[in-house]
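SEQUENCE-TO-STRUCTURE ENTRY
===========================

Subject: a protein chain together with a token-level encoding of how that chain folds.

Sequence line: the amino acid chain in single-letter code, read from start to end.

Question of interest: how does this chain fold, as expressed in backbone structure tokens?
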Amino acid sequence: MRRTKAKNASNGPAVGQDLFLGLVAGAAGTAAMDLVLYARYRRGGGKDSMWKWESAETVKNWDEASAPGQVGEKIEALFIHHPLPDKWARSTTNVVHWATGAGWGLQYGLLAGKSRHRWALLASLGPAAWLSSYATLPLVKIYKPIWDYDAKTLGQDLSAHLVYGLVTGATFAALGRAVSGRRAKEGSP
């Protein structure tokens, strides 16, 4: 989806398109990463259905919330100055999880839409998202420092994030080609 300066002088609509496609691609990447994590969960003896696992149906309180839910709890606590109800833990977990994946996709879309080095961006997206978790979450006491994790745990987490990055990048590229092809058929710039 290369753009020429003549066709894209304002960059306004193209940036909006790149952001939207990145958002959608990030959601696709999140779904792919979740499929990998769910398959591992099942191989490890997990019994919950895909929907029950994906929607965090078993999360009944903040102690049971995964890292995204715990991040959301801390953010919500900044605005609501009293203890948060446990019934918010499940929905917060889901919202923050999907918003994080879509947000990384949005950033990818913004950069990839303007870059000639898309392969480098694609290869770095998953590791960047992975590493940012291990850099930021210990600061808010959700993760331990990265050196406290064993290589197997880090490798499994990194491989799931690699799937996220590859699927996000591939989806962004496919959607970009589809939009460009449709515009070319319609005669739009």
Summary: Residues 14-54+103-186 form one domain.
